[in-house]
Amino acid sequence: MGFRTFTMWENFFGIIFLQFVGHPSGQTLFRVVIKSLSPKELVRIHVPKPLDRNDGTFLMRYRMYETVSKGLKIEVLYGDEHVAQSPYILKGPVYHEYCECPEEDPQAWQKTLSCPDKEPQIEKDFASFPSINLQQMLIEVPKRFGDERGAIVHYTILNNHIYRRSLGKYTDFKMFSDEILLSLTRKVLLPDLEFYVNLGDWPLEHRKVNETPGPLPIISWCGSLDSQDVILPTYDITHSTLEALRGVTNDLLSIQGNTGPSWINKTEKAFFRGRDSREERLQLVQLSKENPQLLDAGITGYFFFQEKEKELGKAKLIGFFDFFKYKYQVNVDGTVAAYRYPYLMLGDSLVLKQDSPYYEHFYMALKPWKHYIPIKRNLSDLLEKVKWAKENDEEAEKIAKEGQLTARDLLQPHRLYCYYYRVLQKYAERQLSKPEIRDGMELVPQPDDSASLCQCHRKRPLRQEL
Q1: Is 229 exposed, middle or buried (0-12, 13-18, 19+ CB in 10 A)?
Q2: How much is the CA Rg of the chain, to the nearest whole Å?
Q3: 167 φ, ψ (degrees, to nearest 5)
């Protein structure tokens, strides 16, 4: 049995990639020990069990509760013997997630994270906004989008501090945008900028580029073919990434270690469970009733079409990991893009994706028939596509695997941070005036994590607030 490791040592991302060659799946015969490089530094480090991705690769996570000045020693042991090039040394200082110690050189930070040179979706989004007029936005955004039913939060980032005010009644989800912005400021010095985040489901800006007045660069979690919003990773992907770093279940990393039986042992049906948030989902259940040999679909909760519950029935809730007992997963929009899509792509089932005008930040990198199987918006070809997959098992498995590998790459934690930073950077570059702390704004404080100790060893002090 051969063994080799691939590692990712970004200081704030406690993730290790391991690969076994010829390793029998389901048997975790190795162990990983992570400790301070210096015996004089006694630090608390939590190392949960490895996540077996069932293809000879494993994910290891660790969480630190204190700064490690000298560095970390990572030992990969098979029995009591070191394997591959173990031990690995991560030179210090190494900081934990809640340590406020931003890198002042954003280019160096991006290089450390191996951020992509370009993100096609970001380039496309900002093509509509060669310049950003903050004064115009101050006047127009509250009038157009900030009424009582609004879900807009107005942010200013100044000297790496975050200030905000809410515009509208439905802004509770600001906890997700607060969370990632605070996490970013702990890691890197952000540019000064002033912007508006849409916390609602639907993208907002439907003005065309050639209209007068032109579109406003509202930042949203979901895009559409007929809107001009600038897209960030959804609140779900964002929160899931932060949870992944805290080591819980049902996040973007945990899903990779819980993908059910191997391909050959999966049930050869298409599967769907979800709420009644779109009429096509009801059609899906009807198709399932008529074609139970091809499709297992059920509605788990009725809100929009309550009158249909008696006719279609209500399915029991099922754990998401159990979805992957089935070979084929049907992805149908909810109110907008179905935010389960990245999780489905990270599994090892074949995803059949409904054609949609909505998209998330990573969709542009995925290609039909290479990473997933496309199905028409009205689902008229769904059964045909399921039959194709059953009759072309090797090709179906190949597409499922290609989609999974690509999603693993696109949805790594460091890629999310890179994406957020690049959007904020592009936005800041286009501002025509200096951002300000506006009336009604409040400082968003860093979380008080008294259980974790932070010692910052950056050479230069942070800029002092004026």
Answers
A1: buried
A2: 24
A3: -120, 105
Predicted TM-score (pTM) of the model is 0.92
Q: For residue range 44-66, what is the model confidence (pLDDT) as tens digits?
A: 888 888 888 888 888 888 888 88
Which pLDDT tens digit goes with each residue over 263-312? 999 999 999 999 999 999 999 999 999 999 999 999 999 999 999 999 99
At position 264, the amino acid (one-letter code) is I
Q: pLDDT over 90 for what percent of the chain?
A: 71
pLDDT at site 245 = 65
CB burial readout 194-226, b (16+ within 10 A) else e: bbbbbbbbebbbebeeeeeeebbbbbbbbbbee
Quote the CA–CA distance of 455 and 355 in Å, as a whole number. 50
Identity (one letter) of the amino acid at 183? S
By C-alpha distance, which of 275, 372, 272, 280 is closest to 322? Answer: 272
Residues in the chain: 466
Residue-wise pLDDT for 342-392, tens only, equals 999 999 999 999 999 999 999 999 999 999 999 999 999 999 999 999 999
DSSP summary character for residue 114? T
CA atoms within 13 A on the CB side of 432: 10
* Angle of CA points 21, 23, 27, to nearest 5°: 155
Give the alpha-carbon dihedral of 46, 47, 53, 54, to 10 degrees: -140
- DSSP element (H, E) containing 341: helix 341-346
